[in-house]
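We modelled the chain as a single entity of 343 amino acids. Its sequence is:
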Amino acid sequence: MLAFYLVVCWTSAMAEFMQVRQHKHYGARREINKCKELLRFESESIDFLAAEFLNETDTRGGGLSPRKQMEVFLRFVADPGFQSGIAEDVGVHRTTACKTVSYVMDKIIDRANFWIHFPATVEEINEAKIQWQRNFRLPTVIGALDCTHVQIKKPNLHGDEYVNRKGCITINVQGTCDALERFTSISAEWPGSVHDARIWRRSPVREIMSRFDGRVCLLGDSGYGISPWLITPFKPPTNEAERRFNLCHSRERVVIERCFGQIKRRFPILGNCVRVASEKVPKVVVCCAVLHNIAKYLGDVYDDNFEINGDDEIEEIDVQHENPGTTRRGADKRREMMLFVNQ
């Protein structure tokens, strides 16, 4: 009898408990932007990217929709590069993910010159100069120049050439940017052992700048030789006027370091190691630069609060710079800019 009574009481209690659970209300949970976390872009921006680079009627890319193809590629550049994990995150087979990454990468490369463009005409140069003056102080400047190292797998051919001064296997990537932190050029073909100044001497951008013979210039660090089209800081400054110029120069040149910092934070594949065949590495870097510029165009910001870590500090070695006449004219232009800063 006692056992029966206990069973009845337990049943009644459970009924009341279940009734309470049925009427329980939960507070709204904090929504996490999984799209931005995994793919580094807002959902609307991904739609734009898919429409910009991928054709709805093209059946290549594993039979996936353009949106899904773009998601696969974005997960690839937002990840250290293990495609098995990418496939799982996006919900496709690893083989499909691998093919899709290559396909989308080629599509972005086809449009790279539209989204990464260095001013070459008088009109474009003047527009870039005006934009710089709106945001900064130094006159006749149209952008900033620097290099950064991106770690890669050691190539089978000439692998030792890719060992940089820190002993890491890298490529040395040269970039220029404008006042709005958009890349205007990117070069990702040079092994990590090659000095920044040598890359600059072989750069098509240097050839373009030299045509204007000092009417406009870029800002570079002291690892480069000075010229009328590339202004570097005084090394070392000998008076207060030169120190003030160097401070102004540093505050404005940092825009290119910000670009490199932003691209590596948005796309961790560049900040970790690009684990693809060596011949595809430049494509990955250029694609990330294109996506960076599009993010600027769309106003799609990702983690903009970062500190420049200085892992690409200036290498102080003797390198062949410009000829004496060019160096002298560059020094004269720098002195004019110094006088302007100290007015």
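As a brief sanity check on the tokenised model: The first helix runs from residue 2 to 22. DSSP finds 14 helices and five strands in the chain.
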